[in-house]
Design a protein that fits this description.
elongated
Length: 727
């Protein structure tokens, strides 16, 4: 199968090289003179640390008792209130679990053949109903069993035999539910001063599968909220508990009676302190949670919270009360307070000399770092810094070392760029092509059938004043323009008319480029502004970068020194990491798409063939590729799906070329180069450069591994590896 290669553009097309504008020297900006490092010198850090530590110990001992007591009380109360805030949820979970068990028990009773027989028999004797209810109450261990007919009338209940027992419960919700839906129901009810959970289930006779099911009635059972509830909820909540029942008649002021309680909350003293008119109204009339509130019970300071207990119609029937003791909670804190006093006395004896020694030890490396920072400020990068330990001071020292290394590399890179500006370029073919592109700034529209382009001095789209031509290629041209609205220079990339017809790959790639590039905001990535059209010209505006492509740097300089080359490599990794974090694979990392500014800042550009997590817009056939063969990864050359590790392979080739002035793979045509990318191992960089650090060589070769799994997994990992290269 023949492999079709689609490259992003000719190798040296659209190169952007701009001579930076001259700026004023720093001294002309009116800045104040730097303060001498010894002009203002007060008490040393070590002495201040010693005095502060001594004063702290003395002050702590004086106020320890008061602070500990107050803080213990605050923490204890906060702990109790936090725990009590979980009480409504704990009670609801326990109640729901109990109701579920009650429904299950009643469901089993409803499925019993005896229940179906007695309720299905329309002529059963009332005495039989009563006896059956008593028998099932004993079997379930419940308070009350109800037998209810189809109409909701109580046929019998085990606890009453008087005519009043045969009431119509059709309007009671926990009875109406099984009658209307044939499903179980449950609720909390009050029986005298006792609270109970009642569960009801429909009794269905006949075969449901044959469509012969018949509703025979309802059987229900109530289970008293008793000491078992109190003990279980005491264990769950960690406090004393009580259940209150509202025994007042309807429309009367609520009256609370203790239904069941643990020992400490069972007395009248608690009820007298808790059951104020306001509390009872909130709990038993409004049906709202009460508390947490402070209450004294028999001299014990307690914090109390009460949860309303509601019927099936949301009517308050009573309340569930939890109380926790502040004195019990503070017992551990009192021990801490006493221990603190003893420790404070001991600290007085040992802390003063220790704090003095520690102050001196901490201050010494910090003082050395401060002196180093002053030297760096004054432009002296060969400074002595303290040894980096494993503590925070060591981390600060390592950060200073890394910063100094970065500054040295950046200074050497700026010096290299300045030298390139001072030295005229050699008349290589690439530079002659570049020089021709620059001279187009003086040209009008191209002759001989070339596509129409904006003239120098023309106002494009009523906004962009064209200043010069930065470069031309087969697909269009790049201009430097002044944006009157933003009041700054921008770069304008214009496509020729045949390339931006709707539906063509070029316009889709242009839209792709701006959509992907605008996702990224990073100092090492060229910012893309907008896509526009004027006078039949489709153009893309982006950040104007007054710098030099890395291709021109290597063409003019050859192999770059290790230090400035590392600075370029690190900045490239930082920019590429931002690209990858935005979910984008660049797919065309090469020196032509890397700009270096005169101040040493690197900019990654050109997202024309990038792809994102949503997929690229260029539709490739099987075996078809995009990119530049000299910098393609093996999987890119094979036309496979790419991830960020493909970009890291291209970075490895760029670094190989940056440090050796040689491409790892050459060939008579693109197909031969791509074949070598796939099948031939790269040469060792040290073959072309004797002073190549071993670690740097291993990093470059790791990036160029044929298997993506053997490359660095991310640009950040590659950056961290480069940071370990010693110069």
């Amino acid at each position: 199968m023949t492999t079709k290669t689609v490259t992003s553009r000719p190798e040296d097309s659209e190169a952007t090289v701009v001579t930076p504008r001259s700026g004023r020297p720093a001294s002309s900006l009116g800045l104040p003179a730097a303060t001498s490092p010894h002009a203002m010198r007060g008490m040393g850090l070590g002495t201040r640390f010693f005095l502060a530590a001594a004063l702290l110990v003395l002050t702590t001992l004086g106020i320890a008792t008061a602070v500990a007591t107050v803080r213990a009380n605050q923490v204890a109360e906060s702990t109790i209130r936090t725990a009590l805030s979980e009480v409504p949820r704990a009670f609801a979970v326990y109640k729901n679990n109990f109701e579920s068990q009650a429904r299950s028990a009643v469901r089993s009773l409803a499925d019993d053949a005896g229940t179906k027989a007695i309720l299905g028999d329309d002529v059963s004797n009332p005495a039989t109903y009563a006896e059956y209810a008593k028998d099932k109450a004993r079997a379930l261990g419940c308070r009350t069993v109800f037998l209810i007919d189809r109409e909701g009338i109580v046929l019998a209940r085990n606890d009453r035999t008087d005519p009043e027992a045969r009431r119509n419960f059709r309007q009671v919700r926990w009875v109406a539910g099984p009658i209307e839906t044939w499903l179980e129901s449950s609720a909390i009810i009050r029986e005298g001063s006792a609270l109970a959970v009642v569960a009801a289930a429909p009794v269905i006779t006949g075969d449901k599968e044959k469509g012969e099911a018949r509703f025979a009635g309802v059987i229900a059972a109530s289970f008293t909220v008793d000491e078992t509830w109190a003990k279980s909820l005491k264990s769950l909540t960690g406090g004393q508990v009580a259940f209150l029942a509202n025994t007042a008649k309807r429309n009367e002021a609520p009256v609370a009676e203790i239904s069941v309680a643990t020992s400490l909350l069972g007395g009248k003293e608690f009820l007298a302190g808790f059951a104020t008119p306001e509390t009872l109204k909130t709990l038993l009339l409004d049906g709202k949670v009460v508390g947490p509130l402070n209450l004294s019970v028999a001299g014990d300071q307690r914090i109390v919270l009460a949860v309303p207990i509601l019927s099936s119609t949301e009517e308050p029937l009573g309340g569930f009360v939890v109380s926790r003791s502040l004195d019990e909670e503070m017992a551990a804190f009192r021990q801490i307070r006493n221990t603190l006093l003893l420790v404070g006395l001991a600290l007085i004896l040992v802390s003063i000399p220790v704090s003095y020694a520690m102050g001196r030890q901490i201050a010494k490396p910090l003082q050395e770092l401060a002196e180093g920072a002053i030297a760096i400020r004054d432009g002296k990068l060969d400074v002595e810094l303290p040894e980096a330990g494993k503590d925070e001071v060591g981390a600060l020292a390592r950060a200073f070392r890394a910063m100094v290394g970065e500054l040295r590399e950046k200074a050497q890179l700026e010096e290299l760029l300045a030298e390139l500006q001072r030295r005229p370029p050699e008349p290589t073919l690439a530079l002659r092509t570049l020089h021709t592109a620059r001279n187009h700034s003086e040209a009008a529209e191209p002759q001989g059938g070339a596509f129409p382009t904006p003239r120098v001095g023309e106002l494009l789209a009523g906004r962009y004043e064209v200043l010069s031509v930065l470069g031309r290629g087969g697909m269009g041209a790049v201009y430097r323009a002044y944006d009157r609205e933003l009041e700054e220079d921008v770069a304008v990339k214009v496509l020729m008319p045949a390339a931006f017809e709707e539906g063509t790959a070029a316009i889709q790639n242009l839209k792709q480029e701006i959509r992907l590039a605008r996702k990224i905001s990073h100092p090492n990535v060229v910012r893309t502004h907008d896509l526009g059209e004027a006078g039949g010209m489709r153009f893309l505006t982006m950040e104007f970068v007054p710098g030099t492509t890395l291709r021109e740097v290597t063409e003019r300089r050859g192999g770059i020194a290790i230090a400035p080359g590392l600075q370029i490599a690190k900045q490239l990794c930082r920019g590429l990491a931002a690209v990858h974090e935005a979910g984008i694979v660049h797919r065309d990392i090469k020196p032509h798409n890397i700009m270096v500014l005169p101040n040493g800042v690197l900019k990654l550009m050109d997202f024309g063939i990038a792809s994102s997590n949503e997929g690229s817009l260029d539709q490739l056939q099987e075996g078809q590729t995009v990119g530049t063969p000299y910098y393609m990864s093996p999987e890119q050359a094979r036309g496979e799906k790419l991830d960020i590790r493909s970009d890291l392979y291209s970075v490895g080739i760029v670094l190989f070329e940056l440090f050796t002035a040689q491409r790892p793979f050459e060939g008579k045509d693109p197909l031969e180069v791509m074949r070598k990318q796939v099948a031939v191992d790269p040469p060792r960089p040290s073959q072309f450069r004797a002073d190549m650090p071993e670690l740097l060589e291993r990093i470059i070769l790791a990036c160029m591994a044929k298997d993506p799994n053997r490359r660095p997994p991310t640009a950040n990992e590659l950056y961290n590896a480069l940071m370990r290269v010693a110069v």
